[in-house]
Amino acid sequence: MILVTGASGHVGGELVSQLAAQGRAVRALVRDPSAFEAPPGAEVAAGDLNRPGSLTEALNGVDAMFLLGGFADMPGVLAGARAAGVRHVVLLSSRSVVGGDPENAVVAMHQGSEAAVRESGLDWTVLRPSGFMSNTFEWQGQLRAGDVVRAPFAGVPIAAIDPHDIAAVAAVVLGRDEHHGQSHPLSGPAAQRPVERAEILAKVLDRPLRFEGQPDDEARAEMLGNGVPERYVDAFFRFFVDGEFDDTPILPTVEDLTGRPPRTFEDWARTHADAFR
Ligand SMILES: NC(=O)c1ccc[n+]([C@@H]2O[C@H](COP(=O)([O-])OP(=O)(O)OC[C@H]3O[C@@H](n4cnc5c(N)ncnc54)[C@H](OP(=O)(O)O)[C@@H]3O)[C@@H](O)[C@H]2O)c1
Hints:
Rossmann fold, two-stranded parallel ribbon, globular, Ergot_Alk_Oxidoreductase, NAD(P)-bd_dom
């Protein structure tokens, strides 16, 4: 049995669907099962990753686990998994950890989760993706209101990855001994600035979208207003304004591990077009 955390999220949701479609035994961990519709063939279990004691039932009979990072007691979550008989954990991290400054709060969060996994006594594999194409869902409200997209960090290209591809890699490595002790950096197929993603979205939606770069002070105020903790806002500004994180390198790893090239932003936009209409 494979336990997938973050099952209602972008990566975990894709992973539950892909594992179930492959006929593998999969259990989706969610905090509120009544708000979650599992794909056919998948089990659902309730649990809160900030409370390791709440995971006991969800972990029953599990031998491999897909885990998001950054929760209150990662060593506690992993100790519970080990006690339940889990053998392999696959952690969703970020490639910002590579050469990242541990004083940056996002880097520190991922480095701390990676360290907990390495020290857990479990077999482990770490996935270190680039920024996600699904971050574009942040434009949904603006696109419902009109044809203008205002977004931060307008000059910054990112080789964004489709969560579908992260999940496909996770499905390949979960439970496979040869990936124990490995950290796989992952990227999408092209480094694009937000304006380029807006142009592709405009083509897919057949709408005359106009992109405007958001000034940094406006972007900071909006992030804080949306409840993003200040230390993480600072971390994003260090990444993308101070230039601490180059998320442009295009890597062969998705194709190496899955046997097919990573999906393009246009693929992602076509799949999710209805969410912007
Ligand atoms: N976005 C990026 O560009 C990027 C880049 C690199 C790495 N990452 C990492 O990727 C992860 C996010 O992945 P994602 O986009 O697939 O997730 P997401 O769509 O943001 O959803 C978050 C998931 O976490 C679950 N969750 C939140 N708090 C929980 C808790 N206390 N206990 C159990 N589950 C909880 C949520 O479930 P509920 O239904 O219970 O809320 C939801 O399924 C983060 O660790 C992030 O740091 C993101």
